[in-house]
Amino acid sequence: MEFLKKHKKITENEINRLKKHIIESLKKKFEIGRTAESSIKNLSIDLHNNFICKSFIYKYRGYFENCLIILNNHKSLYDSKKTDSIYNTLNNEIYEIFISKIEIAKKQEYIKEDFNDLTYESFVKHLLSYYVQNNFYNKLESEEGYFLKLLELFYEIDDYSQFDNSFFSDHEKIITLEKVEKIFNMYNKKLILENFGGQNNLIETQKKISSDLNNELKDSLKEFSIDEKYIILHALYKVIEIKKYENRSLDLAEFLRVIRICQDIDDITLFQTNYTKKFYNQVSKGLDYSTNTNFKKKIKENLTKKLADLKVPEVYDYIKSLKN
């Protein structure tokens, strides 16, 4: 796959395209007198709605979410000091996932057309573009202190000459205080760190953000009704059966996530001699347990919304494909 050697160029092209859009967008806001805070917040919404949500990978994230996760972890798979970790990840792990997912996708009539002419080369371009967009969007949303301080500076002086490609690097790469101070000094500006107070406070701030995100996730896991959990378990069972037939297995992480979502079910009738009660029947039949079309439609809509961002793509796709 010779084209994979061009992955840096593909990434660079997407960075340049996104950077051009960002600068033009912020300059327009500056011209009409919008504040830096509101303009950067608007930029975050714009990137999410007009880039990320319109991308091929996002549209089929149920199939390809794992590809982005693996790409983000390329340095844990390969030693980037000795080899091209992104090239190897694309050439090996992600290619294997792509082939298996395409085989499954082509069996689904409602999306078959989108995948008929999809080559691995075009998929890699989609994935690398999505990778760049997510890295920058995540930096905006995480409120990474120094990163936002620099963006606000560029906005307020209306000068983006120092807005280089390092702003689009892997999300875990934190822009250092040294770099920020150097750029502020270039413009004879004083860096005020009332909320950060150096690298240690930045780390504490990021820990708080991480804690807040974890709390949000825990709250979202509490939103599933008992009927929804029964349908999720039904989908999990069916997905495992399908994979057994295909001589494949379900990703362990997805299996454990589903168990975590459904962990509060306390029905103990399964341990009784006559265990074919509501719990067993509903998990066995799924949506077909009910004859109420409105109920089935509503519970399917609720589940697809709630599961969309919980990284259970196989279960999500199965439920989405169910008929009301």
Structure, briefly:
This protein is 67% helix and 0% strand. With 324 residues, it is mainly alpha-helical.
Please name the defining characteristics of this protein.
about 325 residues; mainly alpha; about 0% strand
Mean pLDDT: 81
Low-confidence stretches: 195-203, 205-210
* Helix percentage range: 55-70%
By DSSP, the count of extended strands is 0
Helix tally equals 16
Beta-strand percent range: under 5%
Largest β-sheet summary: none
N- to C-terminal distance: 43 Å
Order of helices and strands: HHHHHHHHHHHHHHHH
Overview of this protein structure:
The protein has helices at 7-31, 36-52, 56-59, 61-72, 74-77, 85-105, 112-116, 120-141, 145-157, 177-186, 199-221, 226-245, 252-261, 278-285, 293-307, 313-321. α12 crosses α16 (313-321). With 324 residues, it is mostly helical. The chain starts with 6 loop residues before the first helix and ends with a helix. The chain is built from 16 helices and no strands. Mean pLDDT is 81; it is low at 195-203 and 205-210. Helices cover 67% and strands 0% of the residues.
